[in-house]
Amino acid sequence: MSSESEYVTGLSREALDPERGTPIDTPWGMYSLHLVGDEVVCVQAFCPHMDGPLFEGTRAGSRLVCPWHSWIYDLSSCERVDSGDEEGRCLDHLLVIEGVDGALALRKAD
Ligand code: FES
Hints:
Blueprint: E1 6-12, E2 22-26, E3 29-36, E4 39-44, E5 58-60, E6 63-65, E7 72-74, E8 79-80, E9 93-98, E10 103-108
Antiparallel strand pairs: 1-10, 2-3, 3-4, 4-9, 5-6, 6-7, 7-8, 9-10
The structure holds FE2/S2 (inorganic) cluster (FES).
The site of FE2/S2 (inorganic) cluster has 8 residues, from loops.
């Protein structure tokens, strides 16, 4: 069930590829789901730099590298880690809630 503040994805963590992002259309726009260790992280699908397809980025552990200009983000903090520049410092992200049935739901972070 979805409400204004929560969106049920219809996906479970088993449906996620551990090596790449899974793009998902939400009421708040396009995001991508990433399996990072035991955690599921949901961040904006397109890069803050020039809207590159960040969901197609290369993954190495919690690191996500944008395929266009190689900006690097840490999915644990959702912050850019390859530069101290303020531009593109943080990725927009959603809270991920895992239901008792394993279904993943998303909620807008405050
Ligand atoms: S569009 Fe992602 S680094 Fe340039």
